[in-house]
């Protein structure tokens, strides 16, 4: 089956590089200038420098080239997904659409699969998520991800089509669990980065990660996720990676908050909008999510780091 990747940022380019080991891949960039530059230089110098694009990748800005593919991977930021799908709805109608973004839509509280269902109702949606940095995938380092698809048969097909020499896919039909694990871990990673940035130490990070995971489970189970999914690659696996590596943009954003330093506003940091969406839902549903709500306040400047620490430490004592 033919594959196209819509979105030529860090992750889209890395996935295209990995998939090129299986056969021809179309990589679509919305900017014609960017596409021509990548096609000629055989590199995405803006987002994934120093990794050559294999000959099996064709870079284009013509959406008709994406229309020709059977499977389209959507590698755009969560808050841009609806706009991208709406703009290209007629080209993507009826296709198998594998969403690769992690987050909750701020304006609706929906995850990426629901956004696909609303914008292109006759598409077959799936989700690719889990612990992986674009740079690691692009360099061919071993990686394991979750392929979530509500249609079990289609999930098996996609697992086979999208597994590559170094990228091993596990499948699940628990789309909600996979979506929420990937979305919520970014919020906790911001909190862990802030703790390390403020000099609170590794013990504080372990506490935030563990209690943050409890919040992730509380939120996801309320929305119908399965515990096993949260304990797997797309939940705990990605949480551990993102809370412990400076390769993570969410973690680095948190580090800057903790150190009171500015952060590049053009960098994709999914956890900021997701924290806000999650905090709003938690309040509406009466869920106790103190770390996530604190991260939302911290990320938007409503709290300073010392205030955030005090508010978490002063909470009433309770059972674990
Ligand atoms: N970079 C990484 O290591 C990983 C990223 N992801 C997820 O992948 C998603 C994308 O992240 P990155 O590629 O890293 O971000 P990025 O910032 O490197 O690239 C985003 C790309 O989306 C494009 N884009 C934005 N709005 C668009 C629109 N309306 N239509 C078409 N294209 C549009 C931008 O031009 C850019 O090329 C995020 O949800 C992220 O959480 C998941 C796993 C790893
Ligand atoms: O999702 C990721 C790792 O699995 C990438 O994390 P960042 O978006 O924080 O860079």
From TrEMBL:
Glycerol-3-phosphate dehydrogenase NAD-dependent N-terminal domain segment(s): 3-152
Reaction catalysis annotation: sn-glycerol 3-phosphate + NADP(+) = dihydroxyacetone phosphate + NADPH + H(+); sn-glycerol 3-phosphate + NAD(+) = dihydroxyacetone phosphate + NADH + H(+)
Gene Ontology cellular component annotations, sorted alphabetically: cytosol
Amino acids binding sn-glycerol 3-phosphate: 102, 130, 132, 185, 238, 248-250
InterPro entries for this protein: 6-PGluconate_DH-like_C_sf, 6PGD_dom2, G3P_DH_NAD-dep, G3P_DH_NAD-dep_C, G3P_DH_NAD-dep_N, NAD(P)-bd_dom_sf
HAMAP family: NAD_Glyc3P_dehydrog
Record-given protein name: Glycerol-3-phosphate dehydrogenase [NAD(P)+]
């Amino acid at each position: 089956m033919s594959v196209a990747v819509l979105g030529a940022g860090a992750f889209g380019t890395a996935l295209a590089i990995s998939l090129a080991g299986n056969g021809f891949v179309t990589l679509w960039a919305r900017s014609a200038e960017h596409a021509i530059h990548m096609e000629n230089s055989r590199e995405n110098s803006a987002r994934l420098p120093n990794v050559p694009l294999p000959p099996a990748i064709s870079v284009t800005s013509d959406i008709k080239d994406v229309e020709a593919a059977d499977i389209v991977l959507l590698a755009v930021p969560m808050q841009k997904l609806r706009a991208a799908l709406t703009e290209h709805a007629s080209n993507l109608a009826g296709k198998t659409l594998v969403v690769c973004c992690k987050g909750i839509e701020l304006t609706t509280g929906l995850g990426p699969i629901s956004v696909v269902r609303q914008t292109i109702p006759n598409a077959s949606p799936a989700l690719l998520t889990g612990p992986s940095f674009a740079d690691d995938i692009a360099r061919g380092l071993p990686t394991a991800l979750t392929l979530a698809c509500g249609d079990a048969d289609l999930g098996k097909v996609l697992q086979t089509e999208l597994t590559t020499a170094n990228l091993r896919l596990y499948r699940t039909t628990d789309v909600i669990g996979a979506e929420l694990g990937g979305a919520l871990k970014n919020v906790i990673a911001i909190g862990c980065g802030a703790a390390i940035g403020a000099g609170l130490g590794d013990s504080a990070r372990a506490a935030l990660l563990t209690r943050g995971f409890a919040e992730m489970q509380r939120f996801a189970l309320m929305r119908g996720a399965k515990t096993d999914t949260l304990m797997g690659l797309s939940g705990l696996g990605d949480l551990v990676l993102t809370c412990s590596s400076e390769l993570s943009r969410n973690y680095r954003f948190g580090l800057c908050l903790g150190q009171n330093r500015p952060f590049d506003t053009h960098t994709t940091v999914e956890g900021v909008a997701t924290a806000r969406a999650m905090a709003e839902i938690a309040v509406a549903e009466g869920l106790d999510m103190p770390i996530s709500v604190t991260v939302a306040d911290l990320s938007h400047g409503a709290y300073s780091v010392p205030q955030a620490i005090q508010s978490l430490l002063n909470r009433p004592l309770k059972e674990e």
